[in-house]
Amino acid sequence: MDRIRFVTHRGQRILLLDFTGCSAQEVTATADRAPEIVTREPLDSVLLVADFSDAEFTRDAVERIKIAAAFDRPHIKRAAWVLTENLPKALYDSIRSFSAREFPVFTTRDEAMDYLVS
């Protein structure tokens, strides 16, 4: 299964970063690949949902997410995250602070995608 792919929701194209059930190593690998996909898109054009449901995190995985989020920031129009209380608030805050981006958090992927297209 490709963890990074475009999906359509309510007629709009959304880039899905699917981290569901990933080990910390898989989180790291996916985070490392994301900027390559995002930066192919025009500036300020990408609607992005990152679904971290039941994913595992290490310091290295969080660092890679921080770098990816900062690197692809110019291309992101709006982003949302799906979390299942698996990422401690301090780590979430460090990603948000480092990348200078806001990531509204939702409990389901559908809620996150509804937010993106609203």
Written description of the protein model:
The chain has 118 residues and is α/β, with parallel strands linked by helices. It has a single domain, classed as Transcription Regulator spoIIAA (2-Layer Sandwich). Helix content is 41%, strand content 24%. It contains four helices and five strands; from the N terminus they run E-E-H-E-H-E-H-E-H. Strands 1-2-3-4-5 form a five-stranded mixed sheet. Helix 1 runs parallel beside helix 2. The chain is globular and about 35 Å long.
Structural topology:
Blueprint: E1 4-9, E2 12-18, H1 24-38, E3 46-51, H2 59-71, E4 76-82, H3 89-99, E5 105-106, H4 109-117
Parallel strand pairs: 2-3, 3-4, 4-5
Antiparallel strand pairs: 1-2
- Tell me the number of strands: 5
What is CATH's topology name?
Transcription Regulator spoIIAA
What is the CA-CA span between the terminal residues? 28 Å
Strand content of the residues, in percent? 15-25%
| Biggest sheet statistics | 5 strands, mixed
Mean pLDDT: 96
Summed up, the domain count is 1
- Anisotropy-based shape: globular
Which CATH class? Alpha Beta
Content-based structural category: alpha/beta
Uncertain stretches: none
What order do the helices and strands follow? EEHEHEHEH
Question: What is the helical fraction, as a range of percent?
Answer: 40-55%
DSSP summary: helix tally: 4
